[in-house]
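Blackboard transcription, Thursday session:
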Amino acid sequence: MQEESKFIQRLIDKEQKAFKELVNNYEKKVFNTCLSFLKNDEDAEDTTQEVFIEVFRSVKNFEQKASLSTWIYRITVTKCLDFKKASNRKKRFAIMESLFGGNDIERRDFPGNFNHPGVLFEDKEKGKILFAAIEKLGENQRIAFTLHNLDDLSYKEISEVMDISISSVESLIFRARKNLQKLLENYYRENK
Amino acid sequence: MAKENTIKEQIEETMKILQRIEKAEANPFLYEKILNRMQQRKGSLPGRYFIAKRSLAIIAIMLLINVLSFAYFMKDSGRKEIKGSAARELINEYNLDESSSNL
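(Written on the board underneath:)
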């Protein structure tokens, strides 16, 4: 903890070496979280950059009540949700535009086409179905489920990131799993 | 029944993918890209601010020139009017009007 405080102080002092260390230590985690939430490589990389810029910009306001890792995850989730909201607005506008004879909507906007780079080749097709189903979950269920199953965060870490109790996290993940099974069941029934 | 079992199996198989997903690698030049983006923002903001400040200054100078020239012309035309009316009074008083002259 003391080590972490020292490291945070170096970041507050705008030490470039410390910032490089921060990026090296967290780039994979942040990028993978962004990828799980945004389901697009370019958007994930763009948001990853924004996360680190935000961390660097607001580290002086970090009160150290939570660990640095939790704080970074919190920023990541917030940035991803903001990005999604903005892109949903764009998507709605694009739909309106296409109704009035404008451009076709880009296929990459649909999560059903997402090909996660970490999914094994033989799982690719089922992976697409799975990610499309995750996308249909409610926001809190989706966040908790994604952080636990794709980013390997513990219930305690998720409770800190989402600022809710551990029992709420358990309940969210349980319901997410049940809903996901139902969604998959409906999909396989309809596509038999 | 067989169909139900197949669906169940498919759901299980799909859910199992979650355990097999590997972590994706971030861009190896991510750090440089972040620095570049930070630099761009740092550089663009004062530039934009300067352009806005300069155009405001130009507008203010042009407004000032307009107001001053308007004030100058108003003052000048007022003085001409006063001059004109004083001359008219003098002509009338001494009957210097060309049309009324008997010479």
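Lecturer's comment: Chain B is about 80% helix and 0% strand.
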